[in-house]
Amino acid sequence: MLELKNISITLFQNSRKITDNFSFTLNRGEKAAIIGEEGNGKSTLLKMIYDDRLISGYAEYSGEIIKKGSIGYLPQMIDGKYSNKTAEEYLDMDEIFSYGGLFSELGLNLELLGSQKIRTMSGGERVKLQLAKILMSKPDILLLDEPTNDIDINTLKWLESFINKTRLPVLFVSHDETLIERTANVIIHMEQLIKKSQCRITVTHASYSEYISARSLAFSKQQQIASKQRADYNKQMEKWQQIYNRVNHEQKSISRQDPHGGRLLKKKMKSVKSQQRRLELKTEDFIDFPEEESAIITEFSQNIYIPRSKVVLDFYADELSTGDRILSENVRLCVTGDEHIGIIGSNGVGKSTLLSQIWQAVKDRRDITADYMPQDYSEKLDYEKTPIEYLAQNFTKDEITKARTFMGSMHFTHEEMTNKIENLSGGQKAKILFLEMVLKNANVLLLDEPTRNFSPLSNPVVRRSLKEFRGAIISISHDRKYLSEVCNKIYQLDKNGLTVAYAQDFM
């Protein structure tokens, strides 16, 4: 069991609270998903629960944490101190042979990966390795921060099955709507309202779809009641104003020779003013309009257009490799017009390597304007710069104004715009890359797991924006909603190259 009592977390940077007297109990068999927009503190909450020293450099907390049993914690990224270790060094060799079935279920081939340095592994392979180490420790509680990041679809399906079957309490952060829909029975929604000046956490013991439906219905009902209260009040005030104007006019018009009539009108005016006060008192009981943190992503220009006959890409590679290891051979990809391509495949097969090579082939072409969102954002972003400096690289007044306007529309605060990119959440970094593509007016997008760091509430907006994009998209994704909604052609990469994939290969 895990119990939180009156937990308040405050960020040092801007004294912003991300939780305020938050209490919650996670019981055996409960699978609680933490959702919320980018930068709202989901990962910070998990880190604090596991080990409050992990947040001591940027936040402080008050309250009580009660843990009964050992905790297995999966961070978003493997600790850098392990980067030069091999898989065998990272795992307990004395225990490895007892867990062959687990490695097989995760798709981890230790004969192949055992002597490979962790830093040379794919993102998905690193996530699988961490999951294996955690489960080998036989924890009593699981804390998982983005467990679906970069893992392939077969492992994703295994993870869904594992979460559903385990009796262990699981508290997890995920941007994968399908995983949340299929596993969570508790939803913890972290929000930042009124320009991030107030925090709100809603806990609902229900499935994700039930929560979203009930939330929408409650907000709609609250909106209707609040609107009706104000409409009724305005009508009553209009009638009151008419009465007031009439009595006021009569008072001004009455003859001084009629003191009795003057007293009656004065008494009547007193009654009218009393009625006004009674009406105004009613406003104190008005229901507030619902406060909702909206998901916003900047849209691409509708002027982007690529003729269907135009050859955007004709790519061929004899092989894809990392070090001495050949990942795939005879890789051919042709893209024409405004095709939206999705590429799937097992972890470590070379998908990111392929996209990186395609980027090198197209980045300097003048007949198209290409842009790239890598899996590792540090390949593209300069973490020492501020978002303003990165997006307004010539630092002209127009560029700065445009960057500020666009980031403001995407919920960036002044502090987030003017502090180093390294201090931003993964989702906020993804927004900067997304915004860069919009400002660049790119008509060819190369996207490596584009939805991996957007919240489940933002992802429908992101998918719609990319679905409506009128240029070409070449993307790698394990997000099943993204593949089905955005991509009109899907390929699977394996050791023999690219082949056409079908719905049963990824749903």
Structure description:
- The protein has helices at 42-50, 87-90, 93-96, 100-106, 110-113, 123-136, 153-165, 177-183, 208-253, 259-282, 351-362, 387-391, 397-409, 414-418, 426-440, 459-467, 480-485; strands spanning 2-11, 17-26, 31-36, 59-67, 71-74, 141-145, 170-173, 186-193, 198-204, 311-322, 325-336, 340-344, 370-373, 444-448, 472-476, 489-494, 497-500.
- It is an alpha/beta fold and 507 residues long.
- α9 (208-253) packs antiparallel against α10.
- The radius of gyration is 29 Å and the shape is globular.
- The model has no long low-confidence stretch (mean pLDDT 88).
| Low-pLDDT stretches | none
Query: What percent of the residues sit in helical stretches (DSSP H or I)?
Result: 25-40%
Spatial ordering of strands, largest sheet:
5-6-7-3-8-9
Please compute the radius of gyration using only Cα atoms: 29 Å
The quaternary organization reads as single chain
- The gross shape turns out to be globular
Overall mean pLDDT? 88
**How is the biggest beta sheet arranged?**
6 strands, mixed
Task: Count the beta strands.
Answer: 17
User: What separation lies between the terminal Cα atoms?
Assistant: 33 Å
Number of helices: 17
Strand content: 15-25%
Structural class: alpha/beta
Q: Quick gist of this model?
A:
The protein has 17 helices and 17 strands. It is of the alpha/beta class and 507 residues long. The chain has a six-stranded mixed β-sheet, with helices on both faces.
